[in-house]
Design brief:
- InterPro entries: 6-PTP_synth/QueD, 6-PTP_synth/QueD_sf, PTPS_Cys_AS, PTPS_His_AS.
- There is one protein chain.
- α2 (about 65-80) crosses α4.
- The longest helix has 16 residues, at about 65-80.
- By secondary structure, this protein is of the alpha+beta class.
- It contains four helices and five strands; from the N terminus they run βαβαβααββ.
- β4 (about 120-125) and β5 form a beta hairpin.
- The chain binds ligand LPXRUNBV and zinc ion.
- The site of the ligand Nc1nc2c(c(=O)[nH]1)N=C([C@H](O)[C@H](O)COP(=O)(O)OP(=O)(O)OP(=O)(O)O)CN2 has 9 residues, from α4.
Amino acid sequence: MPLANITRVEKFSSCHRLHSNNLSNEENLKIFGKCNNKNGHGHNYKVEVTVKGLIDEKTGMVMNVADLKKYIDIAVMEPLDHKNLDLDVPYFKNHVSTTENVAIFIWQSLKDVMHNPNLLYKVKLFETDKNIVVYKGE
Ligand SMILES: Nc1nc2c(c(=O)[nH]1)N=C([C@H](O)[C@H](O)COP(=O)(O)OP(=O)(O)OP(=O)(O)O)CN2
Ligand SMILES: [Zn+2]
């Protein structure tokens, strides 16, 4: 059976502030600069979720995109869209809400809801058009 990747793209909006509880206020300001401002700021994120697997002979699919959409709704949209990452999402109480850590959150959250988590191959997260993180579970 041939192997293929299939990718679903979704967009969500969140606000956050870059601040580490493991650093002093001065260190936070020095490292994160304007992104440490207590008022926070927002992003229109774009996430690309890729699954990889064998194309089933009978269905012609690696995974039904309707199922992938459902997983992304539960694992990404519900917890993150129109949320303050630092205040509304427990994971970010002790993880800085960088794009790297948001990508890891999405990966772990998808793994938890997918019927066959082994198919998850890649999470690509665009914080802006210019700031992009790829996470593949390593
Ligand atoms: N390694 C990381 N560095 C930074 C992150 C991050 O998530 N990982 N995030 C930020 C800020 O939160 C913010 O996203 C940066 O925004 P901004 O400077 O507005 O974005 P641009 O780079 O697109 O802005 P330009 O001024 O157009 O260059 C900072 N660092
Ligand atoms: Zn930001």
